Amino acid sequence: MPEDTTARHKEYWRRNIRYVGMLLAVWFLVSFGFGILLVEPLNSVNLPGTAYPLGFWFAQQGAIYVFVVLIFVYVKLMNGLDQEFGVSEEDGA
Amino acid sequence: MTAQQWTLALVVASFALYIGIAIRSRASTTKEFYVAGTGVSPLANGMATAADWMSAASFLGMAGLISFMGYDGSVYLMGWTGGYVLLALLLAPYLRKFGAFTVPDFVGDRYYSQTARIVAVVCAIFISFTYVAGQMRGVGIVFGRFLEVDIDVGVYIGMAVVFFYAVLGGMKGITYTQVAQYCVLIFAYLVPAIFLSIMVTGNPIPQLGLGGVDLASGTPLLERLNGLNTELGFTEYTSGTKSMLDVFFITTALMVGTAGLPHVIIRFYTVPRVRDARVSVGWALVFIALLYTTAPAIAVFARTNLINSISETPYSEVPEWFTTWEDTGLLRFEDLNGDGRIQFVGPNSPMENELTVDNDIIVLANPEIAELPNWVIGLVAAGGLAAALSTAAGLLLVVSSAVSHDLLKRSLMPEISERGELLAARLAAAAAVLFAGYLGTHPPGYVAQVVAFAFGLAASSFFPIIILGIFSKRTTREGAILGMISGIALTGAYIVWFTLMHPELSNTDNWWFGISPQGIGTVGMLLNFAVTMTVSRFTPEPPEHVQRMVDSIRVPRSVA
User: Fold this and answer.
1) Can you give the residue range of the structural domain that contains B349?
2) pTM
3) CATH value at residue B151
4) pLDDT of A93 above 50
């Protein structure tokens, strides 16, 4: 494998790790953070416009919605990254 | 038509559909048998994964479990969905690029070791069989309750159907029947939920109804249920009784276990490209979330209904469904104080509780409690069967491919022909169906604990070494083998000790740091990570070709 390709793959991997790290931080925050560790303080307010205690909402509804969004954001970010680094399966493969 | 006639009609129609699909999608090569020829569209694979994943327990049991656990039930909701984020970001795309047929395939190649492969085969088979016992039992129970056939006969019918499409079609047959099964089960789940939501809150969307106002009392529904719960001596519905640490550990174990379950992982081998694997996990979670966000709503509607309609009601005036379900043994009333009224009370009440309610009843009895038409009852039965059969088939495929591919082709008989391997795969699938049927008719008395075991085992064995295999090139064969073994040993010993050998000691006082056997998989996973990483530092680094392989799975398409 030529040197410059290896370097580009390293850079691609570094960016990938950064995306994954950011998304997993949100994943942790909405589930373990809002749904478990902070559930009691958050329960003192309601989700605006509803009768859901906020912490309870995160634990039984909100976290799941955020999980879905996170995966699609990841898909979009990675497809863009693939294009940028010329490793997308759309062209060529 | 009566409820039973509807049930029979809908069950027969759905079975005919599954068999029809199986005949159309027979597998003719091992690649088709193991990974459906990698030609499944991401959307279809998402649906198939959702059906594969959602078992009889999700369909029949979960809403009931949450109904009784309140906030504590969140461990299942977050745990069984959050794992998909890990799967999408950390596992699925890379495993798809690797292009294996099974999970032990990856473990054996990445860790350049037959020992690692065999340890993985044993884990995969054990996890899948513990899980499948509950599914076959679920099939039998649905038959037993709705069609009044013997539970064992129900298991045999289920076996025959699974046999047909798993043995004939392998992954290809399973995939397309799972797509159909998803449609059946989600429809069956949502219809009663929507009716109930309208009945209780006036809002047709259950997810919104849960945060809405209770029509009967005019107060917000959750506030109303908190009030009822407190009045009757239960904990407030939106607060839990488990310790925060235990909730944290159980949720982690379920998330990580989900991401490490072989029957879920291999579904992402079936799509054409890496980018398809990524988006396919997203679709899978969309389809799963549809049921998982509805379940907590059903839980609250059903609990409110149950309390309103039976608490302090004279036994002579109970609604008709009460007596029907009493006959099945799922509802039990014992008039302890002899006042002729039903006291349904919690541990904080001065009175004694007189009513025992089985978790499953919440979903099963919903149509009757909500006075829905008979066809809805038949639909729920067909949905429960779809959930159980689809999961069973996925698990059986893991067992069959572990035997024919990993054990025969990759270990014992490397020179076996393509036709020979396909035949072996079919025979292994057939044997697995028979064994699953045996487990279904002779269930170990502790199915629920055994399922917890499957998650703990998946969390503490596969998850860490697959992640490290992708994200750390330095991870060695010695590290992975010792890591898997120590993770499983700790998790297995803890669960066996507290659930099988000394269930009487299983309480917060005796658990390590208050971590229940359900949450111990998290500790096993951490131990596995620690051991694998430490041992890897002190053992010779992996050979050149393995390091190159890791480089290649990290990018979707290598530039020439």
Assistant:
1) 303-359
2) 0.92
3) 1.20.1730.10
4) no
